[in-house]
Amino acid sequence: MTKVGGLLEFKKICALAGAANLPVAPHCFYFGPGLAATLHLIASTPGCLWLEFPTGELEAPLLREPIQPRHGVVPVPSGPGLGVTLNEEVLARYPYGSAPARPFILT
Fold first, then answer.
1. SS (H, E, C) 40-74
2. How confident is the model over 6-59, as pLDDT tens digits?
């Protein structure tokens, strides 16, 4: 969802797949709000049968309660908004920087 242009574009892709009688398998390699948004989208979109996402854990989790599978099912967060609460301490410790990444050059 985060790589195809957002919620509406993902819905369009699913509609095209549905018209061709094809399932959709979203890939979401995010641990925070991107994963929560993708779960809500999948739960509300016919034809999305499964979700591929990372099963590891971050050393510094972005969410207060990280999204984890339970008995082979990934529950859709049920709180307000996306249903998740950001871990403010982690976000403060690792702020976003707009400076470009420095290249890694082997000499």
1. HHHHCCCCECCCECCCCCCCCCCECCCCCCECCEC
2. 889 989 999 999 999 999 988 888 888 989 999 999 899 888 878 887 777 888
The structure tokens 């998740």 sit at 84
Within a domain: 88: yes
Backbone dihedral angles phi then psi of residue 22, each to the nearest 5 degrees: -115, 140
What is the amino acid identity at position 81?
G
What distance in Å separates the CA atoms of residue 50 and residue 85, rounded to the nearest whole number?
24
Determine, yes or no, domain membership for 107: no
Structure tokens at 57: 């854990």
Token output for 25 = 């398998």
pTM: 0.81
CATH number of the domain to which 88 belongs: 3.20.20.120
76 secondary structure, DSSP code: P
Residue pair 28/53 in contact (Cβ under 8 Å)? The answer is: yes
Structure tokens at 69: 């599978």
Q: Cα separation of 13 and 2, whole Å?
A: 13
